[in-house]
Amino acid sequence: MGVRPLVIVGGGPAGVAAAIEAARAGLRPTLIDEAGGLGGQIYRPLPEGFTVRDARALGKDFRRGEELRARFATVASSVDLLLGVAVLGIWEGRRLLCEGGEIEAERLILATGASDRPVPFPGWTLPGVLTAGGAQAIVKTMRVVPGRRALVAGTGPLLPVVALQLHRAGVEVVAVLEAGRPPPLLASLPHVWREWGLLRDAWDLWRGLRRARIPLLFGHTVFEAAGAGEVERAVYGPVDPADWRPRRDGAKSVDVDLVVTGFGFVPNTELSLLAGCDHEHAHELGGFVPVRDACMRTSVRHVLAAGDGSGVAGALVAIEEGSIAGITAAEDAGMLDAAEAARRRARPLRRLRSLSGVRRVLDAMSRIRPGLVELATPETVVCRCEEVLLSEVFTAFGRGAKDLQALKLMTRLGMGPCQGRNCGPSASAICCKELGITPESAGRIEPRPPVKPVTFGALAGDGE
Amino acid sequence: MGEGRLPGAIERGRPVTLDVDGAPLEAFCGESVAAALLAAGRRTLRTTSRRGEPRGLFCGIGLCFDCVMTIDGRPNVRACRTPVRDGMRVRTQQGDGAWA
Predict the structure, then answer these.
(1) Is B65 in contact with A416 (Cβ distance < 8 A)?
(2) Looking at the complex, does the CB of residue B52 fall below 8 Å from at least one CB of chain A?
(3) Please, which residues have CB within 8 angstroms of residue A13's CB and are 6 or more apart in sequence?
(4) Residues above pLDDT 90, as percent of chain A
(5) Mutate which: B37, B45, B66, B69, vs A, most A CBs within 10 A
(6) Which of A109, A287, A335, B69 could form a disulfide with A330 if both were Cys (CB 3.0 to 4.6 A apart)?
(7) What ipTM, to 2 d.p.?
(8) Three-state DSSP class for A455?
(9) Helices (H), B5-97
(10) Who contacts A447 (Cβ-Cβ below 8 Å, separation ≥6)?
């Protein structure tokens, strides 16, 4: 196949919405996703081999995912769909190295999504500690129960969602620990009143926790997971309201076999970095994000970015950003004139403005505070792949390391198969706190192709 | 069907049998290796190379590479992203693992 007019990387809410708008405008997109189905992490479809018996029992997100897939079905004949294909690198902003060969694109929309922000604490490598996203994948998609008695800790609206999913799956949830403080109701109303649907979701969650008798503790978090070989108990307690540092004098122990942590999300920027897009650090968007204009264009011509991968804001925002990116790509390709493109973008832009109020309120509660890095002790593993301890990071600081790149060279932190996805954000926070520097000076663990480990056979496209 | 599996809502695929460290384990088409092991109460999937520590499923979506096992003779395969197959040989991985 020759040069494709538009390649969209990522089949979550943003990528699917972008494909729908591009196809509607007559620009044929190629939509690529590593998974076997569309929907991304949040609207993940059931695996091949499973059939739905009772869609209602699968919950709201499954229904929303089905709606998105149904909308996609109306344009599916105008889209080239490549599922089960990982994109491993980008050259010159338009040549994509994929499992099974190379794809050349005239223009590109990156909709790569986000992943759980890892926060190291003693015992977080024990089997039985799961990220919130991982717990959801197991319960929602695999329909398997990951434990019997769980503690759910972190920050943000995903915590009560996961807690209730676990509860409905028969797991006893001993508590939900939200590190932040509850948003002040009256002061929040002017920002959120337009979003009745979201307010109702929040109310349903609150009522669900009450009914399930799951305590929701604000200003608390998990301090430690412990056990012989697997999680058998957890220590938790209050955090400082200003910077979330643990207040160990208030620590309590509880017997659990499952600790689920969800400290928000980090944008997956490997591909936008490899594409050469300018990035900036935006705390409220989860870290480094590609710089974009209101039409989703990045600093690299022909490359657009949309959804959580270019700033964490959730699925509803991702859908609108994806739509805008699809329309803009069609405009840039000459399929829509400027006036028609602006007309089509007006509705999603309006929705984005309305949703931004909700985001401000959530951000006030859930913005990650610097004291969280004090959860780790010198013996805590910071880089899970290379088993680098916090004490080794301190040693590297003592020997003059001043940023992530130096830490990587001196300790091997970030050199394992996850390529720093798991340690980069927390190591950056440690640098900022210990060295008194900004995230910009701490820098990044730069991605290198292939961004995921792959065999030579898969690169050569031998069907491996 | 294994107490870790939720009843209702969905119909699983046809049953298959895995060989896990030499012992048979029943699973269902559509499940990942990690899900099938978790459903049987198995949470430790490997031990690390430097400190010999147990690890299991962590991110669950294929990013962290903590759930890697030796599957059908190939080391460092993510159990969370590998669908079960009848007769599949699944081995707890020690350290970096080895081709077998």
Answers:
(1) yes
(2) no
(3) A39, A40, A42, A43, A68, A307, A315, A318, A319, A322
(4) 82
(5) B66
(6) A335
(7) 0.97
(8) coil
(9) 33-39
(10) A269, A270, A271, A273, A274, A419, A420
Chain B residues lying within 8 Å of A418, measured CB to CB: 63-65
The residue to which tokens 């007769």 are assigned? B87
Nearest partner of A128 among A46, A37, A227, A50, judged by Cα: A227
CB contact under 8 A, B51 and A387: yes
For the stretch A15-73, pLDDT in tens is 999 999 999 999 999 999 999 899 999 998 899 899 999 988 888 889 999 999 999 99
DSSP state of A464: -
Q: Residue B61: its chain A contacts at CB < 8 A?
A: 41, 115, 133-134, 137
Q: Which of A297, A253, A252, A293 is nearest to A272 (CA)?
A: A297
Q: Which residues of B touch A53 (CB under 8 A)?
A: 8-11
Task: Give the CB-side neighbour count of residue A133, counting CA atoms within 13 A.
Answer: 23
Question: How close does chain B come to A141, measured CA to CA in Å?
Answer: 9
Backbone angles phi, psi at B9, to 5 degrees: 65, -50
d(CA A94, CA A247): 50
CA distance A114 to A308: 5
- Give the C-alpha separation, A241 to A365, whole Å: 11
B65 touching A, CB under 8 A? yes
C-beta separation of A267 from A306 below 8 A: no
Chain segment B10-43, per-residue pLDDT in tens: 999 999 999 999 999 999 999 999 999 999 999 9
Q: What is the pTM assigned to this prediction?
A: 0.95
Edge-to-edge strand ranges of the sheet holding A252-255 = A220-226, A233-238, A252-255
CA A184 to chain CA mean position, Å = 26
A335 CA: distance to closest CA in chain B (Å):
37
Are the beta carbons of A52 and B53 separated by less than 8 Å?
no
CA A228, CA B53: separation in Å to the nearest integer?
A: 11
DSSP 3-state percent helix, strand, coil across chain B (nearest 5)? 10, 35, 55
